[in-house]
Amino acid sequence: MHLILPALALGLGWVGYLARIVRASMLEVMAAPHIRTARAYGLPERRIIGKYALRIAILPVVTLLAMAVGGLLSGAVLIEAIFARPGIGKLIVDAAEIRNFPVVRGGVLATVALFVVAMPVADLIVAWLDPRVRKTL
Amino acid sequence: MNPPVLDISGLSIRFSGRTDPVLALREVGLSVQAGEIVGIVGESGSGKSTLALAVMRLLATGASVTAGSVRFEGKDILALPEADMRKLRGAGMAMVFQDPMTALNPVLPIGTQMMDVLFRDPALSRADKRARAVAALKRVGLPDAEQQLGRYLFQFSGGMRQRIAIAMALLQRPRLLIADEITTALDVTLEAQILDLLRDLRDEIGCSILFISHNLGAIAAICDRTVVLYAGEVIEAGPTAKILGAARHPYTKALLACDPSRIEIPTRNLPVIPGEVPDLSAPPKGCIFAARCPAALSRCVTHRPVKSLVGRDHSVRCHLIEGAAE
């Protein structure tokens, strides 16, 4: 329960942004000739959107989400301080206040490592979704 | 006699958007009998694809039917509720598009896409659907059909892709197959193979085919009857041998004269029809071809010619032709 407000504060800003990207991406895919083909076979619209279009439209969003990890981490520092949540952000801030630099360094290293790992993970997800990308791996 | 599989009459379609509305099709009429292959020939922008999409009721938003009817097996499909129309798509009538690379889904295996087409039949198990897909792929000449189901579009060659698209269209044995420029993206040898395949499939399944092309050679090879479309109007229609051998309309004649495969004396400059296609946001009052016609009379500019019969099942829309008015 104590996570609801901090989670909202951290995530809400991304909602509109992501929704816009998904919408633009989806509109582009829905205009593609292969979607017209799926319609020409009378496939239910729900299946066309969920299976034929989303799989393609989601690709740019996955990459974007990985980049968002960086923003979320920096946001977490502030959020944790405001809501007094024990977390890596608060740990770094507290350590910096008492000039405990080894802890600051360790904390920053850990968050950077997380961010660095997020990108290849996103690439793997994209490759899993898109066989055309898989081919070039 | 049974009603024709497809009967289009007086069909007019308008595209409206930010610019002036364009009258893409005007009073187009044609019919396709059971088991017949009817060709639609015309240059780019003549409305061939618009006509095909209108039959499938898949026109883009902004396009609207302003007049006319499209009857499929006697039923007016323009009046059909969308849900009923969807049941017809794929099962009653199927369409193969020009470029299979963009017309099929790039991220789903072809087997998945083929099996999805059979979604309507709850009696079919996954294995049944799989078997049907394999059989269809084998029929269109894809080697190792079983192994191909898991592969993706980009892993096939152009000819193979079009074979897959045809196999997909025939999975449900439709009564009408609409082939929209399906050989345009293929080279000549592949084209001949695909045309042979279409003809064989027609004989096997007994479906009618609406074959759209700007390639007169392809039309000559497989069509029983041919309809010549110019700037959104049917200007001549008849048995293919008559259209290609004894054309009456000046446009058809000019079109035939421009066909590179018919030119006997090699020249550096290929013949062209002088002039430009009329602006369809304000189509001319008289004959649609009058402005480019070498034999135009004054009444060609002022009065629209009526359709007249010049032979058995051969009709022309031209003032210069004396024939029985229809």
Detailed description of the structure:
The complex is a heterodimer of chains A (137) and B (326). Chain A is mainly α and 137 residues long. Chain A has one domain (4-136). Chain A is built from seven helices and no strands. Chain A has helices at 4-30, 33-40, 45-57, 59-83, 88-97, 101-129, 131-136. In chain A, helix 1 (4-30) packs antiparallel against helix 4 (59-83), helix 4 (59-83) runs antiparallel to helix 6 (101-129) and helix 5 (88-97) runs antiparallel to helix 6 (101-129). Chain A is elongated, with a radius of gyration of 20 Å. Chain B is of the alpha/beta class. Chain B contains twelve helices and 13 strands. In chain B, the strands form two sheets. Chain B has a nine-stranded mixed β-sheet with strand order 6-7-8-3-9-10-12-11-13, with helices on both faces. Chain B has a four-stranded antiparallel β-sheet with strand order 2-1-4-5, covered by helices on one side. The longest helix of chain B has 18 residues, at 188-205. Chain B is globular, with a radius of gyration of 21 Å. The chains are: A mainly alpha (137), B alpha/beta (326). At the A-B interface, helix 2, helix 3 and helix 7 of A face helix 2 of B.
**Strand numbers in spatial order across the main sheet of chain B:** 6-7-8-3-9-10-12-11-13
- What is the CATH class designation of the domain at 6-92 and 172-247 in chain B? Alpha Beta
Instruction: Report how far the terminal alpha carbons of chain A are from each other.
Output: 43 Å
Termini separation of chain B: 21 Å
SSE string of chain B, helices as H and strands as E: EEEHEEHEHHHHHEHEHEEHHHEEE
The quaternary state of the protein chains shown equals heterodimer
